[in-house]
Each structure stands twice: as structure tokens, then as C-alpha cells.
């Protein structure tokens, strides 16, 4: 069994995953069901496929199988290919991963593919701070803040939600700007991780209504924005 696993690891082509259209059809992997109200569009899906080609780190066979299965499900729906032979280890692993998604809708598979690629890209971006750049990540959950050569860079880091700004992110942005105002930075840059700078306010901000009601929420939001 160990020998078979070794052959699978050696034969799996990372290059093939980078061009998912080239590959042919374990376990049913747990899926992240996105909470975003807006489903990923075909453009989002195609952008995610391009992002996969730009990944610098091999995410490992399990993640690659999951990406493959979600890609096939999003493109073709439930697995419709004959099961490979027991000794065709690579194609059998792919088939098992795809077949394990069952009747998952194409739209959901597409969204999960986009979310997974975004999380992989986000992980790489967070770990690739340039040598000499001072990372200030410890204080932030949804930002990546670095300072280098007199420039502070504040990056919105919520790519799976298209960097929609939550109440917590507003608070973190204020902290980052205050910190930049006290150090020796001459310039502060605000940017976003992933394909989107920001889609604007996270609509879930408006679901948390305080005791004062909607009017109080509106007043608090104005103060926060200022």
C-alpha cells in the first residue's frame, strides 16, 4: 500500500492541475459551503483557474484531488466516467474524488473551487513578505500589514468574500492607519488580496441590529465610516 501511495505521489502531475482541462476523472472531501449571497460567476471561476497556474507552492495531493473533483463537478456535474481499474492508481484516485462529490450542484462546486483557490492564494500572499519588510500581522485578523522603505502597505485579506469590509475590518483599518501615522512611513498604500480590491461593505454588517434599532445602527455606521 505504501508503494502504491508513493507511485501516486510521484505520478501526480502538478503541471496537469495547473491546466485542469488537460486531466481525465479516497474519500469524499469535506466541502466549504460559502456563505456569500452571490454565487461565483463563470468569470470568477475562470479567474480562479488562472490563479491555480500562478501558485508557487505545491498544495499537496489531497488538495489537488479536491481541486480536480470540484473542477470536474463544476464543468460536467456528477461523475459520469467508468471507474478505472484497481491498479490504475492515479486515475482511480481522481475518479474517487470526483465521484465522492455525489450530486453536488455545479454552481456550488464552482463556488467551492473559487473559495479554495482564494484561500490557497491568500495563504501564499501572507507568507511571502519581502526580506527586510517588517510584518505587523499579529494585531490583525483580516489585514496583512507590512512596512518597508518608508511605505506602509495595508492589504485587505478576505479574498473568498471579495474583500468585503466587515465591521471588524473597519476597526482593524483604523488601527493600521493610526500605527502608520506614528511610525516613520512617508506613504501608506491600501490594496486588496486576490482578484478584487474590495466589493464594498459586507452586507452582514447590517444584520446585527443594536437595542436602539435600525436608526441607531445607521448612526453608529456613519461614525465608524468617518
**What characterizes the major β-sheet?**
4 strands, mixed
Helix content: 40-55%
Low-pLDDT parts are: 1-37
- Any idea of the CATH topology of the largest domain? Acyl-CoA Binding Protein
How many domain modules?
Answer: 2
Number of strands: 4
CATH class of the largest domain: Mainly Alpha
Count of helix runs: 8
Structure in words:
The chain is α+β, with helices and mostly antiparallel strands and 226 residues long. It has 2 domains: 2-126, Acyl-CoA Binding Protein (Up-down Bundle); 129-207 and 215-225, 2-enoyl-CoA Hydratase, Chain A, domain 1 (Alpha-Beta Complex), CATH 3.90.226.10. 47% of the residues lie in helices and 9% in strands. The chain has 8 helices and 4 strands. It has a 4-stranded mixed sheet with strand order 1-2-3-4, with helices on one face. Strand 3, helix 7 (167-182) and strand 4 (187-192) form a beta-alpha-beta unit. The longest helix is centred in the middle third of the chain and has 22 residues, at 106-127. The relative contact order is 0.11. Mean pLDDT is 77; it is low at 1-37.
Describe the protein's topology.
Elements: H1 2-11, H2 14-18, H3 42-54, H4 61-76, H5 89-99, H6 106-127, E1 134-135, E2 143-148, E3 151-156, H7 167-182, E4 187-192, H8 213-225
Parallel strand pairs: 3-4
Antiparallel strand pairs: 1-2, 2-3
Helix pairs in contact: 3-6, 4-5, 4-6
Summarize the model shown.
The protein is an alpha+beta fold. The protein folds into two domains: 2-126, Acyl-CoA Binding Protein; 129-207 and 215-225, 2-enoyl-CoA Hydratase, Chain A, domain 1 (Alpha-Beta Complex).
Amino acid at each position: 500500500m505504501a508503494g502504491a501511495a508513493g507511485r501516486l505521489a510521484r505520478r501526480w502531475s502538478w503541471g496537469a492541475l495547473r491546466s485542469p482541462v488537460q486531466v481525465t476523472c479516497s474519500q469524499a472531501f469535506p466541502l466549504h459551503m460559502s456563505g456569500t449571497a452571490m454565487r461565483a460567476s463563470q468569470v470568477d471561476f475562470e479567474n480562479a483557474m488562472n490563479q491555480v497556474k500562478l501558485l508557487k507552492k505545491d498544495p499537496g495531493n489531497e488538495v489537488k484531488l479536491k481541486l480536480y473533483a470540484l473542477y470536474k463537478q463544476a464543468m460536467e456535474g456528477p461523475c459520469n466516467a467508468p471507474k478505472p481499474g484497481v491498479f490504475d492508481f492515479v486515475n482511480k484516485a481522481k475518479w474517487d474524488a470526483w465521484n465522492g462529490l455525489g450530486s453536488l450542484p455545479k454552481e456550488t462546486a464552482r463556488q467551492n473551487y473559487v473559495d479554495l483557490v482564494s484561500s490557497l492564494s491568500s495563504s501564499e500572499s501572507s507568507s511571502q513578505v519581502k526580506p527586510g519588510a517588517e510584518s505587523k500581522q499579529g494585531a490583525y485578523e483580516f489585514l496583512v500589514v507590512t512596512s518597508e522603505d518608508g511605505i506602509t502597505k495595508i492589504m485587505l485579506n478576505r479574498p473568498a468574500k471579495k474583500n468585503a469590509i466587515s465591521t471588524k475590518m473597519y476597526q482593524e483599518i483604523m488601527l493600521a492607519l493610526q500605527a502608520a501615522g506614528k511610525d516613520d512611513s512617508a506613504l501608506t498604500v491600501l490594496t486588496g488580496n486576490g482578484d478584487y480590491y474590495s466589493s464594498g461593505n459586507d452586507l452582514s454588517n447590517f444584520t446585527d441590529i443594536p437595542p436602539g434599532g435600525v436608526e441607531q445602527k445607521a448612526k453608529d455606521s456613519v461614525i465608524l465610516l468617518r
